[in-house]
Amino acid sequence: MSRTPADAGSDPEGEPGAEPESEPGADPDVRDPAATGSGARHARQTSRRSRRSGHRVLWLCAAAVVIVVLAGVAWYEIEANPFGGQGRAIVVEVRTGQSTASVAAELAARGVVESALAFRLSMLIPGSPTIEPGGYLFHERSSFSSAKSVLSAGPDVFTLDVQAGETLTEVEMEVENLPGTISRSFVEAVRDKTVRSPYSPQGGDSLEGLIGVGTYRVLPGESGRRLLEDMTARFDAEASAAGVTPSAASALGVTSYQLVIVASIAQKEGYFDRYMGKVARVIYNRLADGMPLDMTSTVLYPLGQDGGTVTTADRQIDSPYNTYLHTGLTPTPICTPSPTALAAAVAPPPGSWLYFVVVSRAGTTLFTSTYQQQLANEKLARERGL
Q: Which pTM was predicted?
């Protein structure tokens, strides 16, 4: 029997096959998976997959960290212990106040270490040396331990400055201030006369005036003989560059060695570069006229004095260096001449000067050809308290 529209609104309870009422707002086509057995299994499977996925992520992150750490360690070890062994020697000067980072950067730039960053990291290790200013001898491609060992030992490269106008004895005294045994071996090399210069005279064995001026680096373990050989080699180069040759000397009426003697006297008497050529010309003019040189610096040389007043008693000392008593040049140079003094002795300006005197505390020097004018210039110097 068919149902009427009114019957459609009734819902007999417990009628077989009847659909349960949906909650207000619920979608009748969507069902709770957990309400069925298959939904529960699906939820458990999803949870297990989520846990496994999380474990994989953690494992991958841990593996990545390990790889990065191992790569960093490998990089550091390669930088700290470079292949191929040490290379050539390199001297590095550490300046006062220079930072560790700056030192590391300089060592890397000079090829001593492979990486400034890695070396800076190595310096963070407790017990790393405090870097003192001074010179250090390294080698290219040094290991970090080797470079730090050099730094921890302190400066081992020292400098020696040979100034124009110094005597060989004064240079020996400066070498005595260097550490180690180099001073003794240097003096022995000077005394045994086996180191010679091509400018040494026949039968002469003194190296006075035959060493080059400038700064010398003294390396660890260097011998005094090697240092002296370097000094004479530098002078040979300076003299050659200045034109000290037999032909140039002959044109001036002297030998090559005597030309060096003239340069040494011009160095002491002229003092300023601008006067050395004129002093050299005075020397040559006096030699040509057979006059004594009358140079105070030559009298003071055997007395071990550098400048000062020459007394009447000093002028009476019977010494081959006393150019008040003896005509001609001294037996040896009286100091180390500069390249300027050597050039002045090779090519002095033309002139007839025979006399000169300092007339001011600033060193102003007047040159003249007559004795009368020289007396007037000397009076001017006395009036100025000189």
A: 0.75
